[in-house]
Amino acid sequence: GFFPDMDYDQLYIEYKLPEGTSSDKVHEDLQSITDYLLSREEIAHVTASVGGTPARYNLVRSVADPSLSYGELIVDYTSSKQLVATMDEIQQYLTDNYPAAYVRLKRYNLMYKKYPIEVQFNGPDPAILRELTGQALQIMEKSPVLVLARSDWEPKTPTLMVDYNQTIARNIGLSRQDVSISLLSATDGIPASVFYDNNHKQTLFLKCVDSKGNAIESLENSSIFSVMPSMAVLNKEMFYGLMTGSYSEEDVIEELLRTVPLSQVTDGIKLVWEDPLVIRYNGQRAMRAQCNPV
Questions:
Q1: Can you list the GO cellular component terms from the UniProt entry (predicted)?
Q2: Which of 20, 117, 258, 278 lies 20 to 30 Å (CA to CA) from residue 197?
């Protein structure tokens, strides 16, 4: 049978948006939920965490997988009786007001499994696994004694796929790593350093922008640079020019640090939909339909 929940005046709320969602959006939603919870008389305190289960926090509970699209709230009640009496109401409010998220109120329990009820399908074809899991979820959703039915695979996320042209790129002296780092500088930015604002750690990012300080609009025209400048440009003609004065040191440095547009070293960019996480069991792809009893 199932273990009974602990008689405790605290619970935790799991909040999960689709993989790839900005952590800023998660933080914003958690703040909104916190304001709602603190407006209720039976709730004394709320602690928020973004990215995973709070550190140095160990009770009889399941621990979430780290993800920037995940957040958690630890909620203290004035009494355990008030907790039990209001759980369903709060769960319904959060489900109705945050339809894009998976929201789940959980009490502490000796059973560490995330879901008491699961059915698993194994096989090589993700499409068939999704179809079978979908059929199982439909059965679970129709049952009046089951709630919070979901799959353990995340929805597919859009991914930019750059078709790297190895022949052309290597002739210019650019590797796959050079292209990926250059694209990172044109999009999210390269983590360069950190500084502390009192006790808060802040990351400094190095980003490529246009002459007006704006983000580059077209990735095809973004500048691709080499992490280690290619020595191939230092040919006999350039050395002779340095000796005769027709080349200056600035000319050599400019040539070494020369950038090329992304379109010159790739065969195009396309948007594809991929599974952010593929779960396997005994070496095979595995997908689970999961739910909770009422």
A1: plasma membrane
A2: 20
The full set of domains in the chain, from first to last, is: 1-114 (3.30.70.1430), 159-273 (3.30.2090.10)
Round to whole Å and give the CA distance between 282 and 285. Answer: 8
The pLDDT tens digits of the residues spanning 69-86 come to 999 999 999 999 999 999
| pLDDT of amino acid 289 | 94
